[in-house]
Structure to design on (559 residues):
């Protein structure tokens, strides 16, 4: 399966989960689907048969509310039986509505924002101290960059030359109560990371070639890397795109069919 | 206690290559021996306790036994959610060490008074809560915390507390220790109130028993059952707010024993603790204990 098909499948499974569970957060799950497809399809050194292998690359989803597309990704990759996705958000299921480390392939439970970057710094530092080669990837949302804990970690990672750490910002320009520009402005975001001594690249977060190139471009600097992925919330379904409503709303039966058709 | 902690940690780190110490830019003239001996297992995370605690979680996930070290409320309240969610929810091998429990840094003011930490920490699942009473207990507690991969909170006093226990002791997680035997009343202390309690009893020739509880969680319920059968009056004393602290834990313990039918009556418990107030004046630890009437 190429990454385009992978991303389509992620979105389709995600839609199904959100629809069946009458859940939220589909917009943010769709905005990062291409990033996940490229990472899990072409970049990460991981083995679903050995999810805890010591030398695996680590991927942490910081924006835990968008877990549906990560669960879909892991299911498609074969970390667990794909039918288990049907239990999403149901009583007694490990598939909670925020990322759970009880799900095979998930490194860290997340759901409270601003937690993953520090943990990823610890993982990256451990790899450095033990001279291990794995790479640590963290996917953060734009809105969660309001959290000061991220900036503590961003400062730390550069000081300690954690060039085995990559932070991807899913910059979909919308956060919980409004547009990022109206709530707490992040721009110029690239300049912020650059001034914190990170290597920064900006890409179209739905362009797989650009994403792949940015992941593979391991220019040999001693800086941590930030990939600012410009994305569209709800990407893939026209009536969900760039609309705050789809941070919360669950599709109706008609909307579900229309969305599946588009995907 | 601070000195006992760091020198004992150094000894254990010599033989245990997993021990990793992360400090929050504090520990001048204390942590250097560790940093010099084990530079690969030492980190100054800077003045950023949320990040320090998250980093500790990440290091623990990669196989280290991590100690975070700072003073007063900084490694605890400042990063409470990282403790709860990153460390305890994932049940990671991180030991959170705070120097300056209670009013140890009395004159530094309320910012440096750690008087709500026990109450907050003991509500978090998976977390052991410990507060040794002297250097001997500090070494014993450190050893017992190293014997488990559970997350733990280690509340220390400062430097220079007198040695209470004549010999080294062994303190399995959740165990208390009897310091004095008397007939009338059982005094239960945690942390650095041990010395004050001992002195008070001896100076006044009280016929009291004295127990040190270096573990507030898990609590030594066997000991409480034994105490309730021997004494009708119990005093708890701590440098902490009355609400939710050590005395509260003891009350809950007695109540749970009664409910479970292990004991048949409740002793009268007099709780000596800070009465739900802050202090707004300068003052040494001794002065604050006196003005807050933390004595019996
Ligand atoms: Mg957003």
């Amino acid at each position: 399966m190429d990454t385009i098909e992978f991303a389509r499948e992620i979105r389709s499974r995600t839609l199904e989960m959100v629809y069946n569970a009458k859940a939220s957060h589909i917009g943010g799950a769709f905005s990062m689907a291409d990033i996940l497809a490229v990472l899990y399809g072409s970049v990460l050194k991981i083995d679903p048969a050995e999810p805890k292998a010591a030398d695996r690359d680590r991927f942490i989803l910081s924006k835990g509310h968008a877990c549906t597309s990560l669960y879909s990704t892991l299911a498609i990759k074969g970390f667990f039986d794909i039918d288990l996705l049907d239990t999403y958000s149901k009583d007694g299921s490990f598939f909670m509505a925020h990322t759970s480390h009880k799900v095979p392939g998930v490194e860290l439970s997340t759901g409270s924002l601003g937690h993953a970057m520090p943990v990823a710094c610890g993982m990256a530092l451990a790899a450095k101290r033990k001279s291990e080669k794995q790479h640590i990837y963290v996917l953060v949302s734009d809105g969660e960059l309001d959290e000061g804990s991220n900036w503590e970690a961003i400062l730390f990672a550069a000081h300690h030359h954690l060039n085995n750490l990559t932070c991807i910002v899913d910059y979909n320009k919308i956060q919980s109560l409004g547009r990022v520009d109206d709530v707490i402005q992040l721009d110029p975001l690239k300049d912020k990371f650059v001034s914190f001594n990170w290597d920064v690249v900006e890409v179209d977060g739905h362009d797989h070639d650009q994403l792949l190139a940015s992941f593979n471009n391991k220019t040999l600097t001693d800086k941590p890397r930030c990939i600012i992925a410009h994305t569209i919330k709800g990407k893939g379904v026209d009536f969900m795109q760039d609309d705050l409503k789809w941070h919360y709303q669950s599709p109706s039966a008609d909307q579900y069919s229309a969305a599946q058709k588009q995907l | 206690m601070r000195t006992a902690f760091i020198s004992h940690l150094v000894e254990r780190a010599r033989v245990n290559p997993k021990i990793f110490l992360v400090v929050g830019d504090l520990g001048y003239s204390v942590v250097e021996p560790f940093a010099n001996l084990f530079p690969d297992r030492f980190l100054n995370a800077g003045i950023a306790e949320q990040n320090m605690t998250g980093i500790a979680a990440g290091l623990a996930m990669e196989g280290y036994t991590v100690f975070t070290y700072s003073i007063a409320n900084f490694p605890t309240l400042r990063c409470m959610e990282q403790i709860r969610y990153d460390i305890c929810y994932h049940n990671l091998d991180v030991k959170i060490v705070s120097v300056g429990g209670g009013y140890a840094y009395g004159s530094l003011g309320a910012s440096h008074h750690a008087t709500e930490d026990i109450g907050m920490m003991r509500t978090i699942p998976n977390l052991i809560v410990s507060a040794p009473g002297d250097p001997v207990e500090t070494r014993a507690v450190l050893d017992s915390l190293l014997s488990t991969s559970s997350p733990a909170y280690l509340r220390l006093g400062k430097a220079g507390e007198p040695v209470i226990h004549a010999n080294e002791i062994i303190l399995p997680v959740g165990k208390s220790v009897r310091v004095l035997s008397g007939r009338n009343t059982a005094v239960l202390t945690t942390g650095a109130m041990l010395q004050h309690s001992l002195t008070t009893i001896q100076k006044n020739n009280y016929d009291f028993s004295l127990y040190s509880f270096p573990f507030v969680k898990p609590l030594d319920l066997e000991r409480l059952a034994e105490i309730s059968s021997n004494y009708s009056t119990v005093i708890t004393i701590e440098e902490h707010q009355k609400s939710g602290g050590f005395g509260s834990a003891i009350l809950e313990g007695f109540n749970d024993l009664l409910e479970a039918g292990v004991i048949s009556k409740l002793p009268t418990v007099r709780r000596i603790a800070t009465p739900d107030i802050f202090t707004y004046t300068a003052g040494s630890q001794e002065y604050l204990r006196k003005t807050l009437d933390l004595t019996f």
About this structure: The longest strand of chain A covers residues 165-171. The pocket of magnesium ion is lined by residues A 28, 141-143, 172, 174-175 (CB under 6 Å). Chain A touches chain B at residues 101, 107-109, 111-112, 114-115, 117-127, 129-130, 148-149, 152-153, 155-156, 159 (CB under 8 Å).
